[in-house]
Amino acid sequence: MATTVSGAILVAGGYGIVGTQICEILSKRNPDLKILVGGRNREKAAELVERLPNAAVAVFDIEADADPLNGMDEAISGLIAVVNDRDNRLMQACIRRSIPYVDITRWTDRVRTAVFEVALSDVNSPIVFSSSWMAGVPGVLAAHHAKEFSDIDVIDIDVLYGLADMAGPNSIEYVDRLASPFPVLKNGEWVEVGGLSDPKTAKFFGGAEGNTFRFDTPDQVTLPHITNAKSVSSRITYDDQGTMDLMAKLVSSGVWEKLSVPDFDDFRLSLLYNPGEGAVHEVTTTITGKDKGGAPMTRTIMVHDPVSQTHMTALGGVIQIEHTLGLDGSEPRGPGIFFAEHHRAPDVALKTLSENGIKVRVE
Ligand SMILES: NC(=O)c1ccc[n+]([C@@H]2O[C@H](COP(=O)([O-])OP(=O)(O)OC[C@H]3O[C@@H](n4cnc5c(N)ncnc54)[C@H](OP(=O)(O)O)[C@@H]3O)[C@@H](O)[C@H]2O)c1
Fold this sequence. Notes:
Shape: globular
Radius of gyration: 20 Å
CATH class of the largest domain: Alpha Beta
CATH superfamily of the largest domain: NAD(P)-binding Rossmann-like Domain
Strand order of the largest sheet: 3-2-1-4-5-6-15
Mean pLDDT: 95
CATH topology of the largest domain: Rossmann fold
Largest sheet: 7 strands, parallel
Bound molecules: NADP nicotinamide-adenine-dinucleotide phosphate
Number of helices: 12
Helix content: 25-40%
CATH architecture of the largest domain: 3-Layer(aba) Sandwich
Low-confidence stretches: none
Distance between the termini: 31 Å
Number of strands: 16
Oligomer: single chain
Structural class: alpha/beta
């Protein structure tokens, strides 16, 4: 793949669990591309830099530095945020310098706040929100297959999460919101639903079946607008149904709400965050509606990653930053706000997934 950017790509959170894989995949696919591995710890960044053909360390603290890119002498052609950009400092630093920015970390509320901020700023580069599930991988595929329909009733995204999968400490904040209520489009109307409520059955790539429960992802806001679907849902289950059912029971009984206070932080996190070495990650997206001739049609898109949810997320991030900068052969994105599902070359995205061991089956 030919490199077409002159400056470096800064991977903020670049030696974390997802960030490391983004750096490795980007570097393998674009050997000429300079990669800046960013975070607070110089030694940890340097360890990864040693293993990459063309990389350097970038030290900053997005909580402490008002402008995390201040004093960086390297020319930056793009930044991917793989660390919670809580106060939008990285985003604003990119906007000020007209640097293309891709974020994969924000949950729906934070996307909304950031979109307001971008809309009210003077923006001269693409600002891409790609924090839908797996940095937008199922969303990109759903938006692609939605084009086969004249009318879409429902898009259901069902996730099978391996309890032995890996995850870094920066993802705790996201997981700790599993039980919070959030808005979804249901039969054409925006309604609020509870976290881990409203179960349905789902079937996955490897044949597993389970009861999935609602959880908050930005796909549920972006896909209704991008596909005109009347209902969009995201639901999740664990590869241990008993644990999932117990979590859902704790939430529906109100016990979880009582535990959601600082005194119980450690206890809650002991239930929510027990990362392992990696596990199969599978997502099934089902689109139901009418084909171009008006006949009923259903498309089921099953995705399987044998390595980890963090691997599929890294690929989602790579797909978006390459697309944004034109490294995938597309026209670079111009200035403005974009979402993952705006990807204009889904066939290229599919090729990237398949080259990296992700299987996609469409029925
Ligand atoms: N969209 C999705 O589907 C999806 C899926 C998985 C993960 N994610 C998100 O991706 C992010 C990374 O997840 P992860 O599992 O890779 O977490 P992680 O292993 O904890 O990685 C976080 C990285 O950010 C750095 N960092 C943390 N605080 C920082 C600060 N104040 N300033 C600069 N750098 C900082 C960390 O290094 P130091 O602590 O040494 O600075 C580390 O390199 C999380 O926000 C997670 O929610 C999204």
